[in-house]
């Protein structure tokens, strides 16, 4: 009877490091220097040294939005030691992340004393999604937005770093209410669920 229990304990010990490693991958905004780029224009990975000294490897693909000075760029425009801001998301691979956006920044990065943890909500940068929705908010519940559009009802997840814009100015989630007409920019996560990167409303969105 003890032998199966011993085998089970060995199995749990073997998988535990990989399981816990996923909790250490970056979520949200990562700021730092680009150390290495591998792959093609369509897919590959970037290695980043954050300004707090941690090193992360993030995968990118043709859905990753790359930007410099307000213009879209591609992987060939990334160079070693570029100062970058990356919006990362968790993947199923231990110790790895998925880059939703990669932005080259020309201004100096914040000093060590002013750095925020990479799990904090992003403020001035948000993922650029390839999906857009316009409609009326039916319900808000437990991080889920139910939106009534011309094509039917849409269920959209609200992320920790979803941006909320009221009449062109940043605001917070508490101002989003049922029966409001909104514009949503979003995309699919790794589980193929639709999630919101930015939710906007105000005078410019009223008919």
Mean pLDDT: 75
Oligomer kind = single chain
N-to-C span: 72 Å
Strand and helix order:
HEEEEEEEEEEEEE
Number of helical segments with 4 or more residues: 1
CATH architecture type of the largest domain:
Beta Barrel
Number of domains: 2
> Which blocks of ≥5 consecutive residues have pLDDT under 50?
5-23, 111-127
Briefly note the CATH topology name of the largest domain: OB fold (Dihydrolipoamide Acetyltransferase, E2P)
CATH superfamily of the largest domain: Nucleic acid-binding proteins
CATH top level class name of the largest domain = Mainly Beta
The largest sheet has its strands arranged as 1-2-3-7-6
Largest sheet: 5 strands, mixed, barrel
Inertia-based shape:
elongated
Percentage of helical residues? Answer: under 10%
Sheet-strand content, in percent, reads over 45%
Describe this structure in words.
There is one protein chain. With 207 residues, the protein is mainly beta. The protein has two domains: 92 residues, Nucleic acid-binding proteins (OB fold (Dihydrolipoamide Acetyltransferase, E2P), Beta Barrel); 75 residues, Beta Barrel (OB fold (Dihydrolipoamide Acetyltransferase, E2P)). Helices cover 10% and strands 48% of the residues. It contains one helix and 13 strands, in the order H-E-E-E-E-E-E-E-E-E-E-E-E-E. It has a five-stranded mixed barrel. The chain has a five-stranded mixed barrel with strand order 8-9-10-13-12. The longest helix has 20 residues.
């Amino acid at each position: 009877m003890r032998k199966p229990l011993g085998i089970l304990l060995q199995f749990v010990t073997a998988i535990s490091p990989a399981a816990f490693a996923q909790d250490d991958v970056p979520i949200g905004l990562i700021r730092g220097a680009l150390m290495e780029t591998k792959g093609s224009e369509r897919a590959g990975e970037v290695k980043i040294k954050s300004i707090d000294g941690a090193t992360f490897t993030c995968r990118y693909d043709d859905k990753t939005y790359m930007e410099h000075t307000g213009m879209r760029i591609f992987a060939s425009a990334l160079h070693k030691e570029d100062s970058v801001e990356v919006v990362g998301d968790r993947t199923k691979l231990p110790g790895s992340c998925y880059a939703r956006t990669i932005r080259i920044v020309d201004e100096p990065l914040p000093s060590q004393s002013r750095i925020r943890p990479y799990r904090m909500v992003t403020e001035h940068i948000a993922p650029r999604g390839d999906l857009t929705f316009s409609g009326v908010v039916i319900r808000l519940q437990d991080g889920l937005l139910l939106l009534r559009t011309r094509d039917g009802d849409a269920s959209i997840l609200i992320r920790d770093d979803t941006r909320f814009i009221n009449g062109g100015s940043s605001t917070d989630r508490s101002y989003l209410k049922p029966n409001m007409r909104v514009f949503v920019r979003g995309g699919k996560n790794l589980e193929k669920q639709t999630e919101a990167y930015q939710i906007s409303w105000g005078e410019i969105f009223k008919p």
